[in-house]
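seq:
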Amino acid sequence: MNNKQLIECVPNFSEGRDMTIIKQITDTIESVDGVKLLDVDPGAATNRTVVTFVGEPKPVIQAAFLAIKKASELIDMSKHKGEHPRMGATDVCPLIPISNISMKEVIKYAHELGEMVGSELEIPFYMYESAATKPAWKNLATIRAGEYEALPEKLTQAEWKPDYGPAKFNPKAGATAIGARDFLIAYNVNLNTSSVRRANSVAFDVREKGRTKRKGHPITGKVVKDRQGNPERVPGTCKAVKGIGWFIEEYGIAQISMNLTDISITPLHMAFEACRKSADQRGLRVTGSELVGLVPLKVMLDAGKYFLKKQQRSVGISEEELIKIAVKSLGLDELAPFDPSKKIIEYQLTSANAAPLLNMDLRAFANETASESPAPGGGSIAAYVGALGVSLATMVANLSSHKRGWDERWEEFSEWAQKGQANKDALLKLVDEDTHSFNAIMEAARLPKTTTAEAEVRHQAIQEATRYAIEVPFTVMKLSLASFEIIQEMARIGNPNSVTDAGVGALCARTAVHGAFLNVKINSADLEDKKYVTKILREGKKMISKANKLEKETLKIVHDKLDS
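struct:
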């Protein structure tokens, strides 16, 4: 398993029109080994570009430093105009935990970056969000109040002394906010209007901050104040959402521009729905939306499932189909094509070579199997046959979920289909993993063995690789056996017109269990841990017996239905 610490950096640069400038900045980022540039999202109207890159902490910090430095050399804030609030050439530079790292650690790295840039660049730096040194500075809007134009006066005041860098106005570079925060989604919802005031009305309905409370008329009425004389507010419908309305000239429409700061509280699709409901009430219509930067895969899958459930359709469909439903339902392709491979973080981080077998078409996979190469072999085929078996059962569940006359049972079959999809995806991963495990043994065998120490390292590597080469087909056995629960139930209660598909699924599942066990046995012969081998073989034989029994029971159900 990969236990690397990964953090994401999403600097916003105050240039969205001259791509030669942005290219020089991103080239600087990509010059650092260990950093992957995920996304570059320029906006002409906002004159701002959001860049996303990821890597281990130290390389990310180095890349961020170089990017901030390069932006200060190329961008002149004294000439900058744009729709988005801004105060610096690099306006904000947040660090975000992605995997195997805590927020506490990310805060430390944010301050390390602040200290690095502050000591070498003549730019004021303020720490915000979780890295803030003052409670008020947790909120970026507080730090950025008055924007670039307010900096000359603010920097003369003691309370605005920056965390790092000089308390001196830099006319060219402005100031920068460096932060540590949870994953944030920048999301814009499109309206069929050019009115900023109307877009703001929707934004105020939706955002957590809401709007100022007034007596009588919601716009011209007298502001209601609390006992301390502060204006009272009417909260919006969505917590952990910030939002404003603006007009985007390049599209000719107004948008609700939102930051979703905690998607576990308000998911993307619920923010969209809140905007839609508010717009409907105000005589407006939401026509689509756009994502600025990247999103986690779960965001898109959750959205796809939400809209399918609204249709009372099975959510047990493939990942690709769920994403397609999400894109169409949210209108993410209204303003520009939406490419999941470029907009979803996990897809960006997945190497094209990570699953070479799964990326083949059926003919290429068969040809590769039939070639003189020993891999892919029986283990990969067993995993694939197991995936096909449970796929057939999943198909029966999905067909049953929208069978005419069974409308009230869609949720029941949807749950079965979800189980089947999860099982299928797990088995598909093992198609390539079985080949990887075989190759690992070959690589270990090629290690040097000239000295005693080298021989010991080689021996240990072979034993570890062999154990894993046993565990992979053993997992195929367990997953294929587990798929009988779905297969048998679909044969029993599923769409009767598809009962034979469940029967073929049972035949595939039994074959997968038997085939994988052959690989367990042959690899076990080379493992020195005989206690482990004895245990694995004993459990494997039990699974073989159970698979035989379940196949026989399932085929009886199928034949009884065919003969009735």
